[in-house]
Design brief:
The chain contains 11 helices and no strands. With 280 residues, the protein is mainly α. It starts with a helix and ends in an 11-residue tail after the last helix.
C-alpha cells in the first residue's frame, strides 16, 4: 500500500478534528433513518385520521364503510409497526451522540425508556400482529387488503411525472408481493402455529409497504409544489431526497421479513421445554 493511497484513505475515512459528526456517512445514515421513519409515521397517522373522519362523516354510506375497513386494516400497523420502529429510532438517537448519548444531559436515554412501553400498552406487538393477519386480513379472505393494494396501484398508474416512475414501480411491486405472500400464508392457515409464527414478520412487511406508499404520496405532492415555484423549495427538495433514502435503504428490509414469515415452523417447535434453559 503506497503513501498516496493511505493519504487518500485517511482523508476519506478519518476526518479532521474540526469536522462535525454530520460529515460521517454513518451518522447521516442514522439521521436519515430517523427522519424517513418519523416523517413516514406522521404521514400514516394523518392518513389514518382522514380515514377515521371519513368513516364517520362522509355523506355516502358505502364510502364510509370502505374507509372504515381500510382504517381497520391499517390500525395495527399504526399501533405496532410505528411503536416497534420508534424504539429503533430512539436507539439511533442515542448512538448518534456516541458515548455522550447515554448520559442524561441530552435526554435521549429518557426518550428510549419512555418509548419502550409503546409496544406493550396498546396491545403487545404480537397481539397487534395477530389482529392484522388473523382478523383484518384472513376473516375477509384478503378482500380489504386487495382493495388497499388496488388503491396504491391506481395512484401509481395515474402519475405522469417520469421522475416518479421508479418509485411507482417499486410500490406496485411491493403491493403485488404483499398480496402474494398473504395468499401463501392463507394456504398454510390450517396450521395455527404457522399463522402465529408468521404474524410479527407479516406486520413488519406490511408496515414497510405501507410506509412506501406514504412516501410516494409525499414525494408526488412535493414535486407538484416545486413545479409551482414555492418560496420554500428546500422543504420539498428535502422530502424528495428523504423519499429516495426510504426506497433505497428502508423498503428492502421487507424482503427479509418475507423470507422469515414463510420459513417452516419446525425450528420453533423442535426444542423441548427443558432445552430452553441456558446450559453450559
Amino acid at each position: 500500500i503506497n503513501a498516496e493511497y493511505m493519504g487518500h484513505f485517511l482523508s476519506v475515512y478519518f476526518f479532521s478534528p474540526g469536522d462535525p459528526i454530520l460529515a460521517h456517512p454513518e451518522v447521516r445514515r442514522m439521521l436519515l433513518t430517523m427522519k424517513s421513519f418519523s416523517e413516514g409515521a406522521r404521514c400514516l397517522v394523518y392518513y389514518a385520521a382522514q380515514l377515521l373522519d371519513g368513516s364517520l362523516h362522509h355523506p355516502d354510506e358505502a364510502t364510509r364503510q370502505d374507509m372504515d375497513q381500510e382504517l381497520g386494516l391499517l390500525t395495527p400497523i399504526v399501533k405496532a409497526f410505528i411503536s416497534e420502529l420508534a424504539n429503533e429510532m430512539a436507539s439511533h438517537g442515542i448512538q448518534v451522540y456516541g458515548g455522550h448519548g447515554f448520559i442524561g444531559e441530552w435526554g435521549m436515554e429518557q426518550i428510549a425508556r419512555d418509548v419502550r412501553i409503546s409496544t406493550l400498552y396498546e396491545g403487545t406487538t404480537g397481539i397487534q400482529s395477530l389482529d392484522l393477519l388473523g382478523r383484518k386480513v384472513m376473516m375477509n379472505r384478503g378482500a380489504v387488503l386487495s382493495a388497499f393494494c388496488d388503491k396504491m396501484v391506481a395512484f401509481c398508474d395515474a402519475q405522469t411525472d417520469p421522475e416518479l416512475r421508479p418509485h411507482c414501480e417499486a410500490v406496485k411491486a411491493a403491493a403485488a408481493d404483499w398480496l402474494q405472500v398473504t395468499k401463501e400464508i392463507l394456504l398454510r392457515a390450517k396450521d395455527p402455529s404457522q399463522l402465529e409464527s408468521s404474524a410479527v414478520d407479516y406486520l413488519y412487511f406490511s408496515g414497510y409497504v405501507t410506509f412506501s406508499y406514504m412516501w410516494l404520496l409525499m414525494e408526488a405532492k412535493a414535486r407538484l409544489r416545486l413545479a409551482e415555484k414555492p418560496t420554500d423549495p428546500e422543504f420539498y427538495e428535502a422530502k424528495i431526497k428523504t423519499s429516495a433514502f426510504w426506497f433505497n435503504r428502508m423498503l428492502p428490509r421487507m424482503q427479509a421479513h418475507k423470507i422469515t414469515m414463510l420459513a417452516p415452523t419446525s425450528d420453533l417447535t423442535a426444542m423441548n421445554d427443558e432445552e430452553f434453559a441456558f446450559l453450559e
